[in-house]
Design brief:
Chain A has five helices and three strands; from the N terminus they run H-H-H-H-H-E-E-E. Chain A has 159 residues and is an alpha+beta fold. By secondary structure, chain B is an alpha/beta fold. The chains are: A alpha+beta (159), B alpha/beta (289). At the A-B interface, helix 1 and helix 2 of A face strand 5, strand 6 and helix 4 of B.
């Protein structure tokens, strides 16, 4: 599908000003479509779907690098992709992590646990009690250091 | 097609075969020492205190190139002075012979809507359209960047997994004119050319032959894999035979003036695998006879 050419340049305006304006608008629309899983105007659907997937996958890898435990929860990457399509990123991977966990908490217990842990790491709260591995752990932040104290572990674990 | 004039190839291009610096590969790079042609560090990770391995390489006079990933020179915005300053400082700290970046955009600004905010970060390098107007913007951005840097700037061709409907030039034409109008150097990424040819068509061998080879400061190679029917430059897999074929092609075109080649491996790093690849690329670059 043909796409319209850049707008005619008003008299007195240099070529690059009009070119920048058009390029900026077009790149913004294309990137927004890629990040949300849509096909930008004039693009081939399959290759843009794959390209958008690459961008969201890179975003997931940055978040997983910030909190490696995230990878241990099956389906977390697919859930992140759903969230990422709805929330194109204006900022850094760290803010992505908190925002994603906050969103996922409403439906997933593991996300609530990780969110509380992350909030202690970020000094947003001083203490959290998290349920994990069948027991309970106290997570305490003091200055730059985070301490963990297992409160209770079952004697037997079901395999 | 006439063979390129190799007599005009840059004498100050990097030479030999290098490996991109990653923490997991630090010991290997130190072990290879002076045999390592050169290396690259992601510019945004260069800190006042360099890793010990990088200091050792510098003592062995192994060139270390700061490789930026966040300038977004192919975007509509002018280069960010703060990011340029960081890139310049990295070059000074590493005593780098040149710095490198990409012909790509990484962020956009626009009107916020209910669907997306005013500023979007791609989180990765996104190739832009190849038109006369986009080239004019890129030329201005590159000239501004070059004026702010203490050493030459080399720009890398991006991996294109999708084609812009506006494109009126191919990669060789676009980069050739960019280099001619700005005097910038190039990082010829053979793996990215392969990705682009698989996704968008075109003959990568023809593109290599038509590139302004006299402006190539060095070459990138990397591995990839097919995902959902599209070959991606993952930098996490072995270099495929097709990319080795492009190395051979470049060697045949440039002969004794062949620019240095850098192996990129970012993920699923197996040190012995990278060492073997380094040896294979060295063998591939060896001249016939």
């Amino acid at each position: 599908m043909a796409v319209s050419t850049p707008v005619l340049r008003p008299a007195g305006v240099t070529a690059s000003v009009a070119a920048r304006a058009w390029l900026g608008a077009r790149q913004h629309d294309v990137l927004a479509a890629l990040l949300t899983g849509l096909t930008p105007d004039g693009f081939e659907p399959h290759s843009t779907r794959v390209t958008g997937g690459v961008l969201r996958r890179k975003r997931w890898l940055r978040v997983a690098a910030a909190l490696p435990e995230l990878r241990t929860h099956e389906g977390a990457d697919r859930l992140f992709d759903v969230w990422a399509r709805q929330h194109p990123s204006p900022g850094c991977g760290h803010s992505d992590l908190g925002d994603f966990l906050d969103w996922a908490s409403s439906g997933h217990a593991w996300a609530r646990t990780l969110l509380r842990r992350q909030q202690v790491d970020d000094a947003q709260r001083a203490v959290a009690v998290v349920a994990e591995n069948g027991g309970w752990t106290l997570v305490l932040g003091l200055g730059d250091v985070v301490y963990e104290l297992p409160l209770w572990r079952p004697l037997w674990r079901r395999r | 097609m006439a063979a390129p004039d190799v007599s005009s190839l840059r004498s100050d291009a990097l030479h030999g075969v290098g490996i991109g610096w990653r923490p997991e590969l630090a010991d290997l790079l130190v072990e290879l020492g002076p045999e390592l042609g050169f290396t690259e560090m992601i510019a945004e990770t260069v800190r006042p205190h360099l890793p010990t391995s990088v200091e050792v390489l510098l003592r062995h006079e192994v060139p270390v190139v700061p490789h930026g990933v966040s300038l977004g020179l192919a975007g509509a915005q002018r280069p960010d002075p703060a990011r340029l300053k960081l890139l310049a400082e990295a070059a000074v700290q590493l005593k780098a012979p040149l710095v490198s970046e990409h012909v790509a955009f990484v962020r956009t600004t626009g009107s916020a809507t209910a669907l997306h905010p005013g500023v979007l970060e791609a989180g990765h390098l996104v190739p832009g359209p190849r038109t006369r107007d986009s080239l004019a913007v890129l030329v201005e951005n590159v000239c501004e960047a070059m004026a702010a840097l203490p050493c030459p700037l080399a720009l890398e061709n991006p991996a294109r997994t999708m084609a812009w409907p506006e494109d009126t030039m191919d990669e060789a034409q676009f980069l050739g004119e960019l280099a001619e109008r700005t005097g910038c150097l190039l990082v010829l990424d053979l793996a990215n050319l392969y990705v682009s040819s698989q996704a968008c068509g075109g003959d990568p061998f023809d593109l290599v032959a038509r590139m302004p080879l006299e402006q190539v400061a060095y070459v990138h190679v990397a591995g990839g894999a097919v995902h959902d029917g599209v070959y991606l430059d993952t930098h996490a897999h072995p270099i495929p035979p097709a990319v080795f074929d492009l190395i051979t092609h470049l060697r045949d075109l440039t002969g004794a003036c062949m620019p240095g080649i850098l192996i990129e491996r970012d993920d699923h790093i197996v040190v012995e695998e990278v060492r073997e690849e380094w040896q294979s690329v060295r063998q591939c670059c060896a001249l016939q006879g």
